[in-house]
Design a protein that fits this description.
Oligomer: single chain
Distance between the termini: 94 Å
CATH architecture of the largest domain: Orthogonal Bundle
Order of helices and strands: HHHHHEHHHHE
CATH superfamily of the largest domain: Photosystem II 12 kDa extrinsic protein
Shape: rod-shaped
């Protein structure tokens, strides 16, 4: 009888102590593990419902989809900070939902017809946008030679294949 009682007591203590130990540890999965399980979304192909199910708020989902529709997609995850309302802190939270971006071909845009929001989406600074608007006061931008005078050399090199006149 004592042996049965001691055995039951040992089993109870072992189970209880194991559950205490187990509750102290939290499993943390790395981004690579999540990606290999296909839990990370592709920011350039994820649907609205997929983004919402992953815990991204409707407001951010709408903004990300708008950016994608205008530009053709995200060249890298850091492009999210170009979206109005997504600063560094929000970017840090959101980037954990997405896997690294595959190469994407951006949409072309007409430098003479595009709005400021689109120019921001393509990475132009406020100063470069002001210079473009000032140039428009005197006429249209007609060639790459003119745009090279208005925006930085690096920005021109990044966007030359997407700018139309």
């Amino acid at each position: 009888m004592k042996k049965i009682f001691i055995s039951i007591l040992l089993i109870a203590l072992t189970t209880f102590s194991y559950s205490l130990i187990e509750s102290e540890f939290k499993v943390i999965e790395s981004k690579n593990t999540l990606d290999s399980k296909n839990l990370l979304l592709d920011i350039n192909t994820a649907t609205e419902s997929e983004m919402l199910r992953s815990g991204i708020s409707k407001g951010y989902v709408d903004k990300l989809l708008e950016y994608r529709a205008i530009t053709g997609g995200f060249e890298n995850l850091k492009d999210m900070v170009r979206v109005d309302g997504i600063g560094k802190k929000t970017f840090e939270k959101l980037k954990g939902k997405f896997k690294e971006v595959e190469k994407v071909k951006l949409n072309k845009f007409n430098i003479n017809k595009v709005d400021d929001k689109t120019l921001i989406y393509y990475g132009l600074s406020k100063k470069e946008i002001q210079n473009i608007r000032k140039y428009h006061e005197d006429g249209k931008i007609r060639s790459n030679l003119e745009i090279k005078k208005i925006i930085s050399k690096k920005r021109y090199e990044d966007l030359k294949d997407y700018i139309e006149y």
